[in-house]
Amino acid sequence: MKNKALSLLFFFLSVALFALSQPSFLFEDGLSFCAWFAYIPLFLLLNRIPMRHSFFWGGAYGALSYFCLCWWLSSFGAVALLFVCLLFAFYDSLLFFLLVWAKKVFPPRFIEFFWIFRACLVLSVEFLRTHGIFAFSYGIIGYSQWKNPVFLKFSSLFGIMGVSLVILLFNSIVAKVFFEKNLLRNLRSLSFSFSLLAGSFLFFVFSSFFPEKKSYPIQIALIQNASSAPSRTISDFENDVSLLESLTDAALDKFPYTNLVVWPETAIVPDILYHYSHNSDLQRHELSFNVINYIKNKKTSFIIGNNHRDKDGTHNSALYFSRDSESVGVYNKIHLVPFTEFWPNFLDFKFLDGIKNSLECEFFTPGKEFESFALKSGKGDALLHFSSPICFEDSFPSLIRKMKKNDCDFFVSICDDAWSGSVAARKMHLSMAVFRCAENASPMLRSTVDGITCIIGGDGKILSEIESENDSYLCATVEVPKLSFTPYTVIGDWPFVVLCLAILILLLILSARFCRIKKYGRR
């Protein structure tokens, strides 16, 4: 009974530390130091449970930890929260089994290094679950350090996964020391972990002596409206446009030499380019005509969120109206949110139609190509280029890296966080955007619907922001370095692709060893 109580203590302690390390309803910014201890009780638990129970413990851990982390998904719908909990119950049940099983079949002469294998296996699962159709980046342990300048800088070398690896290695070696109760025996392993931490700090210190690239100023106005109309009536759309225009007028009165005005994701729902040239719906035609004329009459460039229709279908898009060009640039969102912006084809069955219809979502067609837009700097002596990730897209390092490599000097992120009704959800989303900037040494301008509208520097530091839950605007001059690249921008996630392959090969070797032991016994 005592052993079971201790196992339960380790279980709930790990869940609590994991949830508290990220932004939550208790601590808006999260308690980043909790991440350095969150996996210690988990690894101690895995040393105690039998292999036949590992699936149960893992499933319970995945479901409960993500329920505590993403409870705000219930604002969208109970189905969304249930799906995420079940998805991570599956991931962690498999992870727990592999960790317990691998420990039993690991070669005794190499068991001293199992703590490294353990951390790398957990990281491999973290890495793989951020890819594919159900990719979900919330909860990656590295994001807990989103206000730590040392690890923000470190991410420019190896990305967010590099930060996660350092945290997991530290947790794993400390758990090894606790389990073996022999500090002297583990001094070499401990020194390796602490040298990683020291190296991260030294890189941060020495990088501050590197000369900064020449930067160019741009004057921007970010518009934030507190909520988006849930209905689809023309009067709601007209009210949205009226609010956006009044906020823009106030911003331009304050900052008349603005180079770029940004309206958030789906700031205008009706496809203004289509309805501008088609008058089959007179009210939408008039609305589109007024919006485009309003933009043309301003002596600045605009980028706005809009539902956009073309020959492929309807897209969630960013439209760019340049003051130096008559043509309109269009970026169609590539990575759509499953069950919110698209329904996976392999789940297109009759018996699931009830769930599909209950979501009451407008499904979009994904875009195919990345787009880079041009903007003259404030002094007019440089042509800068930017890309515009839409909402969920800034949670994916590889996607933002591709934008960066596509001739991009800075990012303009437009998003809608109003649906969550949660400060924790907004902060988690922001924590990922912060790392995208630090990974690529590029600033980001964020315009949101009831999110956190802000300016993020190329070092990941939030330079300026406005409070959410209000209609407002943010005007500022932003310095943009031209063609700044980091090691991560050049190399990307290839080290972790190789790591995943290495872990897979080791698991196959261990499987062969397991079969041999079962047949011939341990020798």
Helical fraction: 40-55%
Query: Uncertain segments of ≥5 residues (pLDDT<50)?
Result: none
Major β-sheet strand ordering: 5-4-3-2-1-12
| Assembly context of the chains | single chain
| Gap between N and C termini | 35 Å
Summarize the structure.
This protein is of the alpha/beta class and about 525 residues long. About 45% of the residues lie in helices and about 15% in strands.
Sum up the structure in keywords.
15% strand, 523 residues, globular, six-stranded mixed beta sheet, 15 helices, alpha/beta
Chain-wise SSE layout:
Layout: H1 2-21, H2 40-46, H3 54-69, H4 78-105, H5 114-128, H6 149-180, H7 187-207, E1 215-224, H8 234-254, E2 260-262, H9 272-277, H10 282-296, E3 301-310, E4 313-321, E5 328-332, H11 353-358, E6 373-376, E7 383-387, H12 397-405, E8 410-416, H13 423-440, E9 444-449, E10 454-456, E11 462-465, E12 472-481, H14 487-491, H15 494-520
Parallel strand pairs: 1-2, 2-3, 7-8, 8-9
Antiparallel strand pairs: 1-12, 3-4, 4-5, 6-7, 9-10, 10-11
Helix pairs in contact: 1-2, 1-3, 2-6, 3-4, 4-5, 5-6, 5-15, 6-7, 6-13, 8-10, 12-13
